[in-house]
Every structure is written in structure tokens, then in C-alpha cells.
Design goal:
The protein is built from 8 helices and 14 strands. By secondary structure, the protein is an alpha/beta fold. It has 2 domains: 220 residues, Glycoside hydrolase/deacetylase (TIM Barrel), CATH 3.20.20; 36 residues, no CATH class. The strands form 4 sheets. Strands 2, 3, 4, 7, 8 and 9 form a 6-stranded parallel β-sheet that branches. Strands 1-12-13 form a 3-stranded antiparallel β-sheet. It is globular.
Length: 272
């Protein structure tokens, strides 16, 4: 019997997630675009620089009072308080940059904020270990791999590509080469790139138009991807793989001898 973790949620073989940093004013338009095409994004924010009454105005950033409604249906995530290179700070400053940003964003979002992206894409082994101590669940880099595999370690989560390269990779995403299943298309960037150096909105509009509405793609936030993969990786098999127990609260799907099998949340499933 051959068992393969081939499917995402609802028996879908592929997934798309979008990831945008800094909370610039252009996020208003980007979120509107994502909503139009029913695409989900994760938005990594610096709480200090959001436009709010108790801090000098930041007209290039979204308003703190707008954030909860703006990002509804998407995900709010940490990007440190001050957009700080975490390799160069002591323990106390590290705690401030990560946890104070997390707390401020949780006050806005109304739910636990569980992931982040690295400011400037900078990290090292010490930064990763510190985040692990703080129970941060994922952290995105800026090292594109131009592929569709899942990370071994979600605290070193490399994206597929920057949005400038995304449309060109759709054909690869559709290629039979990637029919093994659980193929993740992960796109990152900054929404200000579409406006501040000339009108580049056509780049993301074209990508969204071509990648949206597919019956074989799950459109998810970063944390939704992470939660589902955790559920798959935490399945408990008997020695002979004839049975599997799913201790999570998420239904998962497996490929068993080329047939999809649902392993229901909290249930023991016989595979043969």
C-alpha cells in the first residue's frame, strides 16, 4: 500500500498564498483586487508606522483604524515594530520588536497573530532559534526558489517568487511535472511597487485574473497553509499503516494506492 500526502483542503492538489509586507497605502487597492478574484493574502505589518492618532502621521501607510476591516478574510502578521534587522539586536530589543508588534496587531485583528516575515528578508540561525523560543509558527524569507514545494521548517519559509515573476510561472504550476500533489504557489512583494515607480498594477491584475477561479487550487492565507500541513504531518499511523488517527481539528486527505481517502478530524480511519 502506497500512502502519499497529495491533497490540500477539500481534496485539492494545489494551493496559492500571497504575502505582502509593510502595510503601505497601496494595500487598500491590493486587497480590493484580491477580494475581486477571491484570492487570499497575508499582510505583514509594522505597528509603529501605521497611521494613527498617537504617533506622527504616516500618510504612506494604512490607517490603524482601518486595518481590521481592510484585512478581513485575509491574515494580519508580524513584521516587527520598527522594520528592524533582527540579526543585530540584543534579546530585550528582539522581544520588543517581535512580541510588541504581535500584541499591537492582535489588538487590531481580534485573534492570535501567529506568523511573520523577516524585515529585509534578513535572518540567521540565531534569529530562527529565538523565534522558536517565542512560539512564532512561521517566518517568510525573500529567497525565491521558483518552485512549488512545501518548507521543511516553516520558520525558514522560502516563497516561490516575487510577484514580478509570478505570471511567468503559471505554466510551470500547471505542468504535469507538478502532478504529485500538495504543490504550493507562494508569491510575495510590496503593494507600493505597483505604484511608486510607475503604474505597475497590470502585473498583479494579470496574475490574479489568470490564477483565480480554478477548481484544483485552494486559495489560502499563510497560516491556513501552515495549519493544514501541520495536521497532515501530525497524523499517527500504526506500524503496518493499516490505520491512521488524526488528532487535529482539521479534516485531511491522503492518496492511498492512487485513491483519495479522507481522514476526518479527531477520528481513526482504516486504510485497508
Amino acid at each position: 500500500m502506497i500512502i502519499t500526502p497529495k491533497y490540500f483542503k477539500d481534496k485539492l492538489p494545489k494551493a496559492l498564498t500571497m504575502s505582502y509586507d509593510d502595510g503601505p497605502y497601496e494595500d487598500y487597492r491590493l486587497v480590493e483586487l484580491f477580494n475581486k478574484y477571491k484570492i487570499k493574502g497575508t499582510f505583514h505589518l509594522n505597528s509603529r508606522y501605521m497611521d494613527r492618532d498617537d504617533y506622527p502621521p504616516q500618510p504612506e501607510k494604512i490607517k490603524m483604524t482601518d486595518a481590521k476591516k481592510l484585512y478581513e478574510g485575509h491574515e494580519i502578521s508580524v513584521h516587527t515594530v520598527n522594520h528592524t534587522d533582527l540579526r543585530d539586536v540584543n534579546n530585550l530589543r528582539f522581544l520588543h520588536e517581535v512580541l510588541d508588534d504581535k500584541k499591537a496587531l492582535e489588538d487590531i485583528a481580534g485573534y492570535p497573530v501567529r506568523g511573520m516575515s523577516y524585515p529585509y528578508g534578513y535572518y540567521n540561525d540565531e534569529v530562527v532559534q529565538r523565534l522558536r523560543y517565542l512560539d512564532m509558527e512561521y517566518a517568510r524569507t525573500t529567497k525565491s526558489h521558483k518552485s512549488f514545494y512545501l518548507p521543511d521548517d516553516f520558520l525558514v519559509w522560502h516563497p516561490t517568487c516575487h510577484h514580478n515573476d509570478a505570471t511567468d510561472l503559471i505554466s510551470a504550476f500547471d505542468s504535469p511535472r507538478w502532478n504529485m500533489g500538495m504543490n504550493l504557489f507562494y508569491v510575495w512583494g510590496h503593494s507600493y511597487e505597483f505604484e511608486r515607480w510607475g503604474d505597475k498594477w497590470y502585473i498583479i491584475e494579470e496574475f490574479c485574473k489568470r490564477i483565480s477561479g480554478r477548481e484544483d487550487v485552494w486559495y489560502a492565507t499563510n497560516i491556513e497553509i501552515k495549519d493544514y500541513v501541520d495536521a497532515v504531518r501530525n497524523l499517527k499511523f500504526t506500524v503496518d499503516t493499516s490505520m491512521v488517527y488524526n488528532p487535529s481539528c482539521t479534516d485531511v486527505w491522503l492518496d492511498v494506492d492512487r485513491e483519495p481517502v479522507k481522514v476526518a478530524a479527531g477520528q481513526l480511519t482504516k486504510l485497508k
